């Protein structure tokens, strides 16, 4: 019998290929169907809001290498890109595949130039002459709902969706509170900026079947979105997922550009390819976050919170996509890990003349955590209490049976106070406070700040009937190897390693003899893809289930062969074979059974519901009180994702997540000017985080298993991002709190910190 490899640090089997021959990304795909492909280049709006008076393509058509030029008028027969949440968002706010009458953000595609060679497209696109009748732009989400300028006159308002009844907020929510603090804060817009930008390659065969290679987070979802935009039957569409160079939530489904590339290939009767530039990516790919939050918190002087209110304005950008839905997740998770006797949350999603907002690592949950963690700190500061103590006083006590919150979330299991205590201990909290007190007493120029955050988040959400689900097929081959087909879609998370570990553990087949396949809708027609940190708890559980069911099938066949009772057989993972108890010589290996007849099982794992990982982060920052420069010195985290199957991968996810979350607190922000011109359209202006801005992270372990899947696993893919942002923001504010600063919006640029210090103690900083 082999000892279980689950819970061990198996090295990623994906890496040798990436580190030697390299990945095969969409732009590298050399399939013969793509021979002779032409190249698509998008002409994008140069203004934020305008009526298109005319588009003159005549000069572009004459340019070298130009095969065709298409405008919105050519696509008039195609459906618009569907809004993602039917019923909730005004259907009249859908995005046309190419803007024909009105452009609503800088970067909106309005025409395509198709050329023989890629470089020719950029030159020819410059010759497309667009006449704009410029309209006033709505840029600030705060004023969008009341703005006289509406993006969709037929709708008559910029409101895309509302959540909760703002008119019904309780007038007496804070009655009886000794301390009440209210503040409007901004959870700024950020860019997902994956290493691989968006791309597509499309080829139609003689029977009218389309094959599309697209970097995505789930080929099946991408196929559904593309079929919708192209007005075609899913069965006539095959989506293939090549290697994907990062997605962070922004590569779910398909964008108008992907559909236009497929459409152009059909129209021209020739395969077509597209790969966007970094500049296009920064203005064209959906952005994340983009919320304005008004938080109000009240309670007693000794630190007990009695009431909390969260009012959200969500900026959807020009077209309501997943961004319009983000507040639903923010509201669901509004109270976080706290026992808040009274809590209310409402939201309005508005359209503005900016790039559409979509899912970005954490999607709605980081915003909830940031709001409540800032609120707790503001409350502690007002009451003059230690923020760790206030948290401890208000955290929900440990529970092992599901707990339903006032917002309808059913937390599966949690032990929030232990997570906080572990994080404080690992950080040496008392020593840090002593060091801080000394620097304050000495009046040091560089002050020390300690920031905390406690979080609980939702992973594996899904509204499917019967619960969130995922499928897996496991097949054992006559040569003793195995293949797994999965409906998940890894793009850096390491599923190849872990899915092989899970099957290996059951079947005794070595990890390196197991192949994992995904991302081809002809091979795997069903699947939920990878997002919401759902993959292990649903897709991994399905692999384990399929492996176990396969063993059941194999046991029956082995029993037939041995003329024994199946119950008398023993499966030995050391030799991957069945033996009859007491007769080790009569062994039937799985491989031999596979020789006789194909040996495979497809299983669907249905979870009873989503799971709720949690944790606590402690960040330590230094702030130069003369220049405003903040430097992140330490991040100590406890991220409890239930049972960990591969600590190496889980830690990698935590590291990446923490860096991404810290980046929002420290540096990153998408900025528009008052006319809606993007000011952060290159990496020279968008300060993408690098290793130099973050310290080495200190990770403490904690595992509270869930009962929602046999693995005991919850998700880890987004946790680091959710916990770290408020911890880092709180640390920077804490460093200068003794100087009278109560809040600094993210990112904590030197200018912002400096300005906060200058206005410290004034009305402006005390009460926004
Ligand atoms: N894992 C584990 N034990 C656990 C939980 C997870 O060993 N208890 C392992 C899993 O086996 C898997 C990895 O950790 O190898 C992440 O698993 P999971 O938490 O299930 O998350 P997903 O695989 O579904 O990943 C999605 C998540 C999301 S939503 C975003 S956004 C994100 C992220 O993952 N985008 C990423 N991590 C990313 N990492 C990379 N490199 N690139 C992205 O675009």
Describe the structure.
27% of the residues lie in helices and 24% in strands. It has 19 helices and 28 strands. It has a 7-stranded mixed beta sheet, sandwiched between helices. Strands 7-15-14-13-8 form a 5-stranded mixed beta sheet. Strands 18-26-27-28 form a 4-stranded mixed beta sheet, sandwiched between helices. A hairpin with a 5-residue loop joins β9 and β10. α16 (647-666) packs across α17. The longest helix is centred in the last third of the chain and has 28 residues, at 535-562. The radius of gyration is 27 Å and the shape is globular. The mean pLDDT is 96. The protein binds pterin cytosine dinucleotide. Pterin cytosine dinucleotide (MCN) is lined by residues 246-249, 361, 491-495, 498, 530-536, 540, 641-646, 649-650, 653, 656, 713-718.
Q: What keywords describe this structure?
A:
single chain, seven-stranded mixed β-sheet, five-stranded mixed β-sheet, 19 helices, 28 strands, globular, binds pterin cytosine dinucleotide
Architecture blueprint of SSEs:
Layout: H1 15-19, E1 38-44, E2 50-56, H2 58-61, E3 66-71, E4 102-103, E5 109-115, H3 118-125, E6 129-134, H4 141-144, E7 159-163, E8 179-190, E9 199-204, E10 210-213, H5 219-230, E11 237-240, H6 256-268, E12 272-275, H7 278-284, E13 288-299, E14 305-315, H8 326-332, E15 342-350, H9 365-383, H10 387-394, E16 403-404, E17 410-411, H11 416-427, H12 429-442, E18 446-456, E19 469-476, E20 482-486, H13 495-507, E21 514-517, H14 535-562, E22 569-572, E23 577-580, E24 583-589, H15 590-596, E25 599-606, E26 614-624, E27 630-640, H16 647-666, E28 698-700, H17 719-735, H18 750-758, H19 763-766
Parallel strand pairs: 1-12, 10-11, 14-15, 20-21, 27-28
Antiparallel strand pairs: 1-5, 2-4, 2-6, 3-5, 7-15, 8-13, 9-10, 9-12, 13-14, 16-17, 18-26, 19-20, 19-25, 22-23, 23-24, 26-27
Helix pairs in contact: 8-9, 9-17, 13-14, 16-17
Bound molecules: pterin cytosine dinucleotide (MCN).
The site of pterin cytosine dinucleotide has 35 residues, from α13, α14 and α16.
């Amino acid at each position: 019998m082999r000892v279980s490899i689950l819970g061990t640090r198996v090295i990623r089997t994906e890496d040798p290929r990436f580190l030697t021959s390299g990945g095969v990304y969409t732009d590298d795909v050399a399939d013969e169907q793509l021979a002779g492909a032409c190249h698509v280049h998008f002409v994008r709006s140069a203004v934020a809001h305008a009526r298109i008076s005319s588009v003159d393509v005549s000069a572009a058509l004459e340019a070298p290498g130009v095969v065709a030029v298409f405008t919105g008028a050519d696509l008039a027969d195609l459906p618009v890109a569907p809004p993602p949440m039917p019923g909730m968002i005004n259907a009249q706010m859908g995005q046309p595949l190419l803007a024909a009458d009105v452009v609503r953000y800088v970067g909106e595609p309005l025409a395509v130039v198709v050329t023989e060679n890629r470089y020719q497209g950029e030159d020819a696109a410059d010759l497309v002459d667009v006449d704009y009748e410029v309209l006033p732009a709505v840029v600030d989400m705060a004023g969008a709902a009341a703005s006289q300028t509406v993006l969709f006159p037929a709708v008559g308002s910029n409101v895309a969706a509302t959540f909760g009844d703002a008119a019904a907020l309780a007038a007496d929510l804070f009655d009886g509170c000794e301390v009440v603090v209210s503040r409007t804060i901004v959870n700024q817009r950020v860019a997902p900026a994956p290493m691989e930008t968006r791309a597509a390659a499309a080829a139609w065969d003689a029977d009218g079947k389309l094959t599309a290679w697209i970097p995505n987070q789930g080929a099946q979802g991408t196929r559904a979105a593309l079929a919708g935009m192209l007005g075609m039957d899913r069965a006539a569409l095959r989506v293939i997922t090549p290697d994907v160079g990062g997605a962070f939530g922004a590569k779910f489904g398909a964008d108008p550009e992907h559909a236009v590339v497929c459409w152009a290939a059909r129209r021209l009767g020739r395969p077509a390819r597209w790969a966007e530039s970094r500049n296009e990516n920064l203005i064209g790919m959906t952005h994340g976050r983009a919320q304005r939050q008004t938080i109000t918190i009240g309670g007693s002087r000794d630190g007990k919170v009695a009431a909390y209110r969260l009012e959200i304005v969500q900026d959807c950008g020009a077209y309501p996509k997943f961004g319009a839905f983000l507040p639903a997740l923010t509201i669901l998770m509004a109270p976080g890990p706290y026992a808040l006797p009274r809590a209310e949350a409402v939201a309005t999603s508005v359209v503005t003349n900016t790039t559409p907002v979509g899912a970005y690592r954490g999607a709605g949950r980081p915003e909830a955590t940031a709001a409540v963690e800032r609120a707790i700190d503001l409350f502690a500061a007002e009451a003059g209490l230690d923020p760790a103590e206030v948290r401890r006083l208000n955290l929900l006590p440990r529970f092992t049976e599901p707990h339903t919150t006032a917002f309808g979330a059913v937390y599966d299991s949690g032990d929030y106070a232990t997570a906080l205590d572990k994080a404080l201990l690992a950080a040496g909290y008392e020593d840090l406070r002593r060091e801080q007190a000394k620097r304050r007493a000495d009046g040091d120029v560089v002050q020390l700040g300690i920031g905390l955050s406690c979080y609980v988040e939702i992973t594996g959400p899904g509204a499917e009937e019967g619960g969130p689900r995922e499928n897996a097929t496991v097949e054992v081959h006559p040569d003793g190897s195995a293949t797994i087909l999965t409906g998940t879609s890894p793009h850096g998370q390491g599923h190849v390693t872990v899915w092989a570990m899970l099957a290996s553990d059951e079947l005794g087949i070595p990890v390196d003899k197991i192949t994992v396949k995904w991302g081809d809708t002809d091979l795997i027609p069903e699947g939920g893809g990878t997002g919401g940190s759902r993959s292990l708890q649903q897709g991994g559980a399905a692999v384990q289930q399929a492996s176990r069911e396969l063993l059941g099938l194999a046991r029956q066949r082995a029993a037939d062969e041995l003329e024994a009772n199946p119950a008398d057989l023993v499966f030995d993972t050391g030799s991957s074979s069945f033996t009859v108890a007491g007769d080790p010589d009569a062994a039937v290996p799985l491989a031999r059974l596979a020789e006789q007849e194909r040996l495979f099982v497809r299983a669907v794992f249905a979870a009873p519901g989503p799971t709720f990982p949690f944790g606590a982060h402690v960040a330590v920052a230094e702030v130069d009180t003369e220049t405003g420069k903040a430097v992140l010195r330490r991040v100590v985290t406890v991220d409890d994702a239930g049972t960990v199957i591969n600590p190496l991968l889980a830690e990698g996810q935590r590291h990446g997540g923490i860096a991404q979350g810290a980046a929002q607190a420290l540096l990153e922000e998408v900025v528009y000017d008052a006319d809606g011109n993007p000011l952060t359209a290159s990496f020279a202006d968008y300060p993408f985080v690098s290793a130099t801005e973050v310290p080495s992270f200190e990770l403490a372990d904690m595992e509270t298993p869930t009962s929602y899947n046999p693995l005991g696993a919850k998700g880890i893919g987004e946790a680091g991002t959710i916990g770290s942002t408020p911890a880092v923001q709180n640390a920077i504010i804490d460093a200068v709190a003794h100087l009278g600063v109560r809040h600094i919006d993210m990112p904590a640029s030197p200018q912002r910190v400096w300005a906060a210090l200058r206005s410290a103690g004034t009305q402006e900083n005390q009460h926004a």
